[in-house]
Every structure is written in C-alpha cells, then in structure tokens.
Amino acid sequence: MKPISVTLEKSKETKGTYRFDSPDPNAVITSVYVRKSAFDDGAVPKRIVLTVAEAGS
To answer: Which of 36, 40, 53, 55 is the most buried (most CB within 10 A)?
Structure first.
C-alpha cells in the first residue's frame, strides 16, 4: 500500500477535541478529530499533515 498524506486545517473545537478538515472536498480523507490532550503545551497548529500507511507485521 502506498502511504496517503493529506494536509488538514483546524476548523472546529468541541468540548474535548479539535476537528481538522481538508480544504479539498475530493480528498481521500476529509476530516479527523484529535483529542485536545494531544497538544500538551496548549499550542494548537492551524494545519496538520496526516499520513496513513500500512502497519508493519
């Protein structure tokens, strides 16, 4: 499997998560939720890169 990478932009904040959306509506991954606890120092990036790759055995 070839890795898939998409750039996502912060779009929404919920009680315990941040939602990141792709600006491209045809992207293979359009949104992802990340728990607030993932950002220990409280600095939330405006953009993230998400890479999906097959796990090694």
So the answer is: 36
Strand-by-strand arrangement of the 31-35 sheet = 31-35, 17-21, 4-13, 47-52
pLDDT along the chain (57 residues), means of 10: 94 95 94 93 92 87
Instruction: Return d(Cα 40, Cα 17) in angstroms, integer.
Output: 13
Residue 18's CB is within 10 A of a number of other CB atoms, namely 19
Q: How far is the C-alpha of 28 from the C-alpha of 1, rounded, in Å?
A: 14
